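Input (structure):
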């Protein structure tokens, strides 16, 4: 499979899972460390619109702020850093993630909105968890005044306003799971 070329100022769905579907986040500390490393390696290089960290995979909705080569290297550094720490913690060796992180270029704002919903609703689709209370999704960042790395205002503008953002998330979105099969 030829990988999508990343381009500056374009939006992407970035995702990957553990090799052979293995767990890549065993606990909350792993997820917090991944988010910390994400911020460290990608600061100013990408804008994050949504994320969700599940036990064996993750989703990011991003926009590139700089040229592809630097962003690809930043992601490589992030994944290598996280894998080394995880392997050391769990006393394992070898690859943690599938070979290349997947990326899909988003073609329009409608796709971007639907993808943000899909990512936020991921806990519901996989584990029938209440996505509103899921700690490792960007959804809760929209209910806080705390500083965040999420492009909160841009996302809310995509949905029109905060009320419509909530409304869209509360709709029966079973068709999202059928439309997007990213794992």
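Output (sequence):
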């Amino acid at each position: 499979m030829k990988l999508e070329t990343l381009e500056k100022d374009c939006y992407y769905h970035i995702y990957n899972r553990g090799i052979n579907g293995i767990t890549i986040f065993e606990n909350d500390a792993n997820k917090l460390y991944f988010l910390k490393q994400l911020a460290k390696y990608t600061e100013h290089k990408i804008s994050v619109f949504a994320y969700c960290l599940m036990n064996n995979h993750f989703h990011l909705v991003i926009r590139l702020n700089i040229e592809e080569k630097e962003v690809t290297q930043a992601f490589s550094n992030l994944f290598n850093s996280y894998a080394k720490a995880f392997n050391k913690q769990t006393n394992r060796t070898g690859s943690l993630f599938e070979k290349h992180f997947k990326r899909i270029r988003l073609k329009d704002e409608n796709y971007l909105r639907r993808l943000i919903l899909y990512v936020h609703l991921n806990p519901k689709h996989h584990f029938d968890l209440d996505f509103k209370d899921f700690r490792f999704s960007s959804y809760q960042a929209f209910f806080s005044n705390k500083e965040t790395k999420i492009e909160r205002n841009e996302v809310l503008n995509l949905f029109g306003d905060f009320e419509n953002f909530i409304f869209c998330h509360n709709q029966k979105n079973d068709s999202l799971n059928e439309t997007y099969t990213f794992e």
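Notes: Residues 6 and 68 are 5 Å apart (CA to CA). The chain has a mean pLDDT of 89.
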